[in-house]
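Please go through the sequence line and token line underneath and see whether the fold suits the sequence. See right below:
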Amino acid sequence: KSKLYDFISPEYRPEIAKQMLEVVERTGTFNRSKILCHNTKGNDIWLMLSGFPVFTKAKTLKGYRGVFQNITQRMRDEEKHTLVINTSIDGFMMTDGNNHIIEVNDAYCQMTGFSQDELLGKNFIDLDIGEEILKRNDSSNKSKNIGQERFETKHLCKNNQCIDIEISLNNLNLVENQLFIFIRDISERKLSEASKAQNLELLQVHQNKLRNLQQKLASAEESERKKMAELLHDGIGQNLAIAYLKLSSIGENSNADKTQKVIGDSLSLINNAIKESRSLTYDLSPPILYELGLVSALKWKLDQVLKDFGIESNIIINKEPLSLKNETAILVFRIFSELLNNIIKHAKASFVEITIKHNEFMLGFQIKDNGKGFDTNELSTKSNSFGLFNIRERIESLQGKLEIKSVINQGTTIKFLIPN
């Protein structure tokens, strides 16, 4: 005859024997005991046993009477459910009809800092997100037979840290009022979105500055053209015109003394025109910059500042020669020219010092004055900060960095670094 043990998987036999012994000792019943067995084909099947022992009048065990229910599919489904839930990177929680938590996975515990022991059996309303979820679920069920809702909110964790989460809420009506809740931590996504929004705002601000820069560049270009035209007309042009008139006044009957005076005056006018044209040429594009390099061009510029505005200066370089690409040397010279113009216009300085340090990797430049200084916090609001904005744009075009330090009545120091 077949015995029950013959159908039970070997690894479960000791456990079933222990259960049966306990049943015999207390003359109790088997209540929904789960047993792994083999069918006639040798395949594993799960059975649920409900039954009781049968005794003789002498109270000796006669046998067992009960019923088996094949729960193989249910056990497989539960195994899949457990596998999916426990391996999910999202938090998961299940509540019963009384809003008590009956299942929660490790991902939710790690996300919130709670342990499973702290959560299982707890009323879901006690959680920070409980009332919000139930409110959403009630609203969802009013319009759907199967409640499904997805929304974003904040969740207060055990450590009082607040995180952004996305909740996927499902009421499958398998058990009345039972909720299946998936919780995803979206804090990083929210930070990324906030960062993108901030970057977009900064980009818009930068674009506005560039538009203003374009307008001011156009205005500055027109102003320089006007200035150049005035220099050509009032200076060089006028000197040449007067020289022409003087020379044309020399006639056949002119005496030698008058002729010599006219020629002398004309030569002086022509010489002045030559000087003005040379000065204009140097302002536009100094040949010394291309022929002798940046350091010589800066020394020439500082000599001009001393001659025209009485501002003394000094230039320090850690080692020579300073070898730069033409385009870099031109850009650096333009930057120093703009900075010197700012000192002349605004600083009321009597002394300027330029320092150049360089190695095989970096070029470091500094210009320091003893002028009245200014509040660097007001740079972004002052309309006359256009020059410094233009300088910053030029330095950043070379992947460089600009640093401005200024103290009221103690002067200003501006440094910038560019790759060599």
